[in-house]
Design a protein that fits this description.
The complex is a heterodimer of chains A (208) and B (320).
Chain A lengths: L5 H7 L27 H11 L3 H12 L1 H19 L47 H11 L22 H6 L37
Chain B lengths: L2 H7 L4 E6 L7 H9 L7 E4 L11 H10 L4 E6 L5 H13 L4 E5 L20 H14 L16 E6 L9 H11 L3 E6 L3 H13 L7 E6 L5 H7 L11 H8 L6 H17 L4 E6 L8 H7 L5 H15 L3
Parallel strand pairs in B: 1-2, 1-8, 2-3, 3-4, 4-5, 5-6, 6-7, 7-8
Classes of the chains: A mainly alpha (208), B alpha/beta (320).
Chain lengths: 208, 320
């Protein structure tokens, strides 16, 4: 086991570790809106911490080296984001540009904004006792001056990635083409919509 | 080339109407339903299992409408098909001569006649628009695979509900669809013309009216029962403002239909006066026979169309 950090070795072979989370069935049937449990201000602070800076990239690379560590890391991500955002582990997190209100909780899983069925008071059409995730997301983003984030065009979800850690995907750059730049609305050139789209060039003030 | 596009580009006030496919397997039944609209509207929307209730597929209904002399707009929702089926159906529909498409997320299965159905929603309406515009303009599928030939010349539409929360975001939401490729946009019911005009103004401020034609959705409240239903808050995306409710409830129950038609005609006339509005979209499925009278009341005259429709009717009665 030489070359493997001690902490990693401990995590790899825990004597009686809590049962490690395994992917699948990754997608609970029938999504429903979850109310974010973290204030917008704190969420955007967390965003700064989770940026793919050199430290996070190194951490991500280390975690990815050992499958068991990767699983534990993913389990920790699942547990925290489930509690905070009703995370369904799509593995391609949109929270940074949706006011930290999860669009995968929308019963139609709409990634580009609310449907036309939102009730006059902002209720979800399918679960009228809950608020529309996009109404909540818009309010949260606007309260921190981030409403423009919602203008980005979100590419289709890759269903192979359900169950993966989106933090690891984010740090490794596998999330770079999830959405377009925020000037899409006024720019008449249309970027490619597909999975094979060119990664987006980083922008000034980019939320990623 | 799309006659609907030509009509909108001409700057003439354009009228489209919803025409729901039949629950049955007969194109003739579909043609009968389409008949009374011929000559009065510039295009008809063939809905895609509207309200999640099973009907004839929108492409087949679009063909029947076309055969009946109407310009069809085939609606496609994201509710029932994944990205493979959506792209494939689009290619098939273009291959049989359908030129206008309208994309929407679709009502949730919960509201339909098969509430236990799996909601697909693999793409959302913006992504579907984006994918189809790319098929047409770049000749490529979402996968990047090339199309030979691509679906050239098709005319793409989207929907928006300008009066649903978050109101502040609705113009930008429309803008995303336009950025994704929408060339025309039909709205959900407009009763509050002032609020609708504010949304159109926002589209103008964003520079979007040069890229997309806007058609205001207009419906007719035909009875006290329909008023109760629409104002119950249980119809996705529809709310009836208090002043409209007061006005309709002030008349005797048997006259609600007539008053509702007057109200709809007033809305048509009013949105016609809103700068940047290209036409109206009549959300009056099941009301086809009364549609000509409604348009006349609203001052949307169709002398040429009326003559054509009359001539057509005469020819038909001559032993066709």
């Amino acid at each position: 086991m030489s070359g493997v950090p001690v902490a990693v070795e401990l995590l790899t072979t825990p004597p009686d570790a809590p049962s490690a989370w395994r992917p699948g069935p990754a997608e609970p049937r029938l999504p429903s809106p979850a109310r974010p449990g973290l204030s917008p201000r704190l969420a955007y602070v967390m965003q700064k911490v989770l940026r793919p800076n050199p430290a996070n990239r190194v951490l991500g690379a280390l975690v990815e080296r050992v499958p068991a560590v990767r699983r534990l890391f993913t389990a920790a991500e699942k547990r925290s984001k489930e509690r905070l955002f009703g995370c369904r582990m799509c593995g391609q997190c949109a929270l940074p540009v949706t006011g930290y209100s999860c669009p995968m909780g929308c019963p139609k899983e709409l990634r580009n904004g609310p449907c036309g069925g939102v009730g006059p008071g902002g209720s979800c059409e399918v679960y009228p006792e809950k608020r529309c995730v996009w109404v909540v997301g818009y309010e949260r983003a606007a309260s921190e001056g981030r409403a423009h984030d919602l203008r980005r065009l979100q590419r289709p979800v890759d269903h192979r990635r359900f169950g993966e850690s989106s933090w690891l995907n984010y740090w490794a750059g596998r999330d770079d083409n999830l959405w377009t730049g925020h000037d899409t609305l006024t720019d008449s050139t249309r970027p490619a919509p597909g999975e094979h789209a060119e990664p987006r060039e980083p922008e000034e003030g980019d939320s990623q | 080339m799309s006659a609907l596009r030509d009509r909108l580009a001409s700057g003439e006030f354009t009228v489209t109407a919803e025409l729901s496919p039949v629950r049955g397997a007969s194109a003739a039944a579909m043609a009968t339903r389409a008949e009374s609209l011929r000559g009065w509207v510039d295009a008809v929307n063939l809905t895609d299992n509207q309200g999640s209730h099973v009907r004839m597929s929108s492409w087949a209904a679009a063909l029947a409408a076309k055969a009946a002399g109407l310009e069809p707009i085939m609606q496609m929702t994201c509710r029932d098909r994944n990205r493979i089926a959506l792209q494939s159906d689009l290619l098939g529909a273009v291959s049989v001569g359908i030129e206008n498409f309208l994309f929407m997320s679709g009502d949730h299965p919960k509201f339909g006649d098969h509430p236990g159905a799996k909601p697909v929603f693999d793409l959302d309406s913006t992504q579907l628009m984006w994918a189809v515009a790319t098929m047409r303009d770049e000749g490529k599928l979402l996968s990047g695979n090339e199309l030979k030939p691509p679906p050239a010349g098709i005319f793409l539409g989207a929907v928006e509900n300008p009066l649903a929360p978050p109101i502040e975001f609705r113009a930008e939401r429309a803008g995303k669809k336009i950025a994704a490729g929408a060339q025309f946009m039909q709205t959900q019911y407009v009763f509050d013309v002032a609020a609708f005009a504010r949304w159109v103004g926002q589209l103008g401020d964003l520079g979007l009216l040069d890229r997309c034609f806007v058609l205001a959705g207009v419906g007719v409240i035909r009875s006290a029962r329909m008023l109760d239903f629409l104002s119950s808050g249980n119809v996705p995306g529809v709310s009836v403002p208090d002043d409209v409710q007061r006005r309709l409830r002030a008349v005797p129950a048997e006259k609600v239909g007539a008053e509702g038609a007057v109200l709809a005609a007033e809305v048509i006339a009013a949105v016609r006066g809103v700068a940047g509005v290209a036409g109206v979209h009549l959300l009056t499925a099941g009301y086809e026979k009364q549609t000509p009278a409604l348009l006349e009341m609203a001052g949307v005259s169709r002398p040429a169309a009326t003559a054509r429709a009359t001539a057509g009717a005469a020819a038909a009665s001559d032993g066709d």
